[in-house]
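Async update (no meeting this week)

Hi team, since we skipped the sync, here's where things stand on the single-chain job. The sequence we agreed to prioritize is pasted below, unchanged from the tracker. I ran it this morning and attached the output directly underneath so nobody has to dig for it. Comments welcome in thread, and please keep replies under the output.
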Amino acid sequence: MLGIFKEKLVNAPKELNSPASNSHTKAKPSHEILRDFMSCNSSNAFYMTFGNDALLAYSPSNKPSIHQRLFSGLDNIYCAFMGNLHNLSQLNKQYGLSKGGNEAMFIIEAYRTLRDRGPYPADQVLKGLEGSFAFVIYDHKDGTVFAASGSDGHIGLYWGIAADGSVVISENLELVKASCAKSFAPFPTGM
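Output:
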Protein backbone atom coordinates (compact mmCIF):
# COMPACT_ATOMS: atom_id res chain seq x y z
CA MET A 1 0.00 0.00 0.00
CA LEU A 2 1.06 3.57 -0.59
CA GLY A 3 -0.42 6.87 0.47
CA ILE A 4 0.92 10.23 -0.62
CA PHE A 5 -0.65 13.31 0.92
CA LYS A 6 0.13 16.99 0.44
CA GLU A 7 1.39 18.69 3.56
CA LYS A 8 -1.86 20.66 3.92
CA LEU A 9 -3.58 17.31 4.73
CA VAL A 10 -0.94 15.76 6.98
CA ASN A 11 1.23 17.64 9.42
CA ALA A 12 4.23 15.39 9.85
CA PRO A 13 6.40 16.02 12.89
CA LYS A 14 9.29 18.38 12.14
CA GLU A 15 11.71 15.65 13.23
CA LEU A 16 10.73 13.67 10.13
CA ASN A 17 12.37 16.31 7.95
CA SER A 18 16.05 15.46 8.03
CA PRO A 19 18.42 18.37 7.51
CA ALA A 20 21.18 15.87 6.63
CA SER A 21 22.13 15.98 3.01
CA ASN A 22 23.41 13.02 1.09
CA SER A 23 24.81 13.98 -2.29
CA HIS A 24 24.01 10.68 -4.00
CA THR A 25 20.54 10.10 -2.53
CA LYS A 26 17.82 12.70 -2.94
CA ALA A 27 14.14 12.61 -2.12
CA LYS A 28 11.87 11.97 -5.10
CA PRO A 29 8.77 13.87 -6.16
CA SER A 30 5.38 12.17 -5.69
CA HIS A 31 4.91 11.11 -9.32
CA GLU A 32 8.24 9.23 -9.29
CA ILE A 33 7.33 7.47 -6.04
CA LEU A 34 4.05 6.31 -7.58
CA ARG A 35 5.87 5.14 -10.70
CA ASP A 36 8.31 3.11 -8.56
CA PHE A 37 5.44 1.56 -6.58
CA MET A 38 3.55 0.55 -9.71
CA SER A 39 6.64 -0.87 -11.43
CA CYS A 40 7.63 -3.11 -8.50
CA ASN A 41 4.13 -4.49 -7.86
CA SER A 42 1.91 -6.95 -9.66
CA SER A 43 0.01 -6.15 -12.81
CA ASN A 44 -3.22 -5.79 -10.82
CA ALA A 45 -1.90 -2.88 -8.74
CA PHE A 46 -3.97 0.29 -8.99
CA TYR A 47 -4.05 3.83 -7.67
CA MET A 48 -6.57 6.57 -7.09
CA THR A 49 -5.78 10.25 -7.12
CA PHE A 50 -7.84 12.91 -5.42
CA GLY A 51 -6.95 16.07 -7.30
CA ASN A 52 -3.44 17.18 -6.44
CA ASP A 53 -3.92 16.60 -2.71
CA ALA A 54 -3.89 12.85 -2.17
CA LEU A 55 -3.10 9.52 -3.74
CA LEU A 56 -3.72 5.95 -2.57
CA ALA A 57 -2.09 3.01 -4.33
CA TYR A 58 -2.65 -0.63 -3.60
CA SER A 59 -1.43 -4.00 -4.79
CA PRO A 60 -2.58 -7.43 -3.68
CA SER A 61 0.31 -9.50 -2.37
CA ASN A 62 2.36 -11.40 -4.95
CA LYS A 63 3.48 -13.89 -2.32
CA PRO A 64 1.51 -16.14 0.01
CA SER A 65 1.32 -14.44 3.38
CA ILE A 66 -0.52 -14.72 6.64
CA HIS A 67 -1.31 -11.00 6.30
CA GLN A 68 -4.14 -10.19 3.97
CA ARG A 69 -4.32 -6.99 1.95
CA LEU A 70 -7.61 -5.22 1.45
CA PHE A 71 -8.78 -2.01 -0.18
CA SER A 72 -12.29 -0.63 0.29
CA GLY A 73 -14.15 2.58 -0.24
CA LEU A 74 -17.50 3.84 1.06
CA ASP A 75 -19.05 7.31 0.90
CA ASN A 76 -15.80 9.00 -0.21
CA ILE A 77 -13.77 7.27 2.51
CA TYR A 78 -11.04 4.93 1.28
CA CYS A 79 -9.02 2.43 3.30
CA ALA A 80 -5.92 0.40 2.43
CA PHE A 81 -5.55 -2.31 5.07
CA MET A 82 -2.92 -4.98 5.73
CA GLY A 83 -3.10 -7.74 8.30
CA ASN A 84 -5.82 -9.38 10.32
CA LEU A 85 -8.11 -8.40 13.17
CA HIS A 86 -8.58 -11.44 15.38
CA ASN A 87 -11.66 -9.93 17.02
CA LEU A 88 -13.41 -8.76 13.84
CA SER A 89 -16.66 -10.64 14.61
CA GLN A 90 -16.86 -9.10 18.07
CA LEU A 91 -16.09 -5.62 16.70
CA ASN A 92 -18.72 -5.93 13.96
CA LYS A 93 -21.26 -6.92 16.60
CA GLN A 94 -20.20 -4.05 18.92
CA TYR A 95 -20.59 -1.49 16.11
CA GLY A 96 -23.79 -3.07 14.76
CA LEU A 97 -22.24 -4.02 11.41
CA SER A 98 -22.93 -7.05 9.25
CA LYS A 99 -20.90 -10.07 10.22
CA GLY A 100 -19.82 -10.57 6.61
CA GLY A 101 -17.75 -7.38 6.47
CA ASN A 102 -13.97 -7.44 6.16
CA GLU A 103 -11.34 -5.54 8.13
CA ALA A 104 -11.11 -2.60 5.73
CA MET A 105 -14.88 -2.07 5.81
CA PHE A 106 -14.86 -2.27 9.62
CA ILE A 107 -12.07 0.34 9.81
CA ILE A 108 -14.08 2.68 7.54
CA GLU A 109 -17.20 2.25 9.68
CA ALA A 110 -15.26 2.77 12.92
CA TYR A 111 -13.69 5.91 11.43
CA ARG A 112 -17.14 7.22 10.38
CA THR A 113 -18.45 6.57 13.88
CA LEU A 114 -15.56 8.55 15.39
CA ARG A 115 -15.96 11.35 12.86
CA ASP A 116 -19.74 11.65 13.08
CA ARG A 117 -20.67 10.61 16.60
CA GLY A 118 -17.31 10.12 18.30
CA PRO A 119 -18.08 8.94 21.82
CA TYR A 120 -14.48 7.74 22.17
CA PRO A 121 -11.13 9.25 21.25
CA ALA A 122 -9.30 7.45 18.43
CA ASP A 123 -6.79 5.82 20.78
CA GLN A 124 -9.66 4.13 22.67
CA VAL A 125 -10.95 2.56 19.45
CA LEU A 126 -7.46 1.44 18.43
CA LYS A 127 -6.96 -0.24 21.83
CA GLY A 128 -9.94 -2.46 20.98
CA LEU A 129 -8.32 -3.79 17.79
CA GLU A 130 -6.66 -7.16 18.37
CA GLY A 131 -4.28 -8.49 15.75
CA SER A 132 -1.47 -7.49 13.45
CA PHE A 133 -2.43 -4.65 11.15
CA ALA A 134 -1.60 -1.39 9.48
CA PHE A 135 -3.95 0.88 7.58
CA VAL A 136 -4.32 4.24 5.92
CA ILE A 137 -7.67 5.98 5.54
CA TYR A 138 -8.31 8.98 3.34
CA ASP A 139 -11.58 10.85 3.82
CA HIS A 140 -11.95 12.73 0.55
CA LYS A 141 -15.04 14.64 1.68
CA ASP A 142 -13.41 16.03 4.84
CA GLY A 143 -9.84 16.08 3.49
CA THR A 144 -8.47 14.10 6.43
CA VAL A 145 -6.02 11.22 6.77
CA PHE A 146 -5.96 8.62 9.52
CA ALA A 147 -3.22 5.99 9.69
CA ALA A 148 -2.38 3.38 12.28
CA SER A 149 -0.07 0.47 12.91
CA GLY A 150 -0.94 -2.24 15.41
CA SER A 151 0.74 -2.14 18.79
CA ASP A 152 2.27 -5.59 18.30
CA GLY A 153 4.59 -4.16 15.60
CA HIS A 154 4.35 -7.23 13.34
CA ILE A 155 3.39 -5.15 10.32
CA GLY A 156 5.63 -2.17 9.94
CA LEU A 157 4.38 1.10 8.55
CA TYR A 158 6.79 3.83 7.48
CA TRP A 159 6.44 7.47 6.63
CA GLY A 160 8.63 10.09 5.09
CA ILE A 161 8.79 13.39 3.26
CA ALA A 162 8.92 13.47 -0.55
CA ALA A 163 10.87 16.09 -2.51
CA ASP A 164 7.69 18.15 -2.99
CA GLY A 165 6.94 18.17 0.78
CA SER A 166 4.22 15.50 0.56
CA VAL A 167 3.95 12.89 3.29
CA VAL A 168 4.52 9.33 2.05
CA ILE A 169 3.11 6.37 4.03
CA SER A 170 3.74 2.72 3.13
CA GLU A 171 4.53 -0.67 4.61
CA ASN A 172 7.36 -1.00 2.06
CA LEU A 173 10.47 0.22 3.88
CA GLU A 174 12.67 0.06 0.78
CA LEU A 175 10.22 2.20 -1.21
CA VAL A 176 10.00 4.85 1.52
CA LYS A 177 13.76 4.82 2.11
CA ALA A 178 14.55 5.18 -1.62
CA SER A 179 11.87 7.84 -2.07
CA CYS A 180 12.44 10.06 0.94
CA ALA A 181 16.25 9.90 1.30
CA LYS A 182 16.98 10.54 4.99
CA SER A 183 13.58 12.03 5.81
CA PHE A 184 11.77 8.86 6.86
CA ALA A 185 11.05 6.84 10.02
CA PRO A 186 8.93 3.98 11.29
CA PHE A 187 5.35 5.02 11.94
CA PRO A 188 4.55 4.91 15.67
CA THR A 189 2.80 1.68 16.66
CA GLY A 190 -0.58 1.75 18.28
CA MET A 191 -1.45 5.17 16.86
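Quick observations from my side:
The mean pLDDT is 86.
Strands lie at 2-5, 46-50, 54-58, 68-74, 77-85, 131-139, 144-149, 158-161, 167-170, 184-186.
Reply here if anything looks off.
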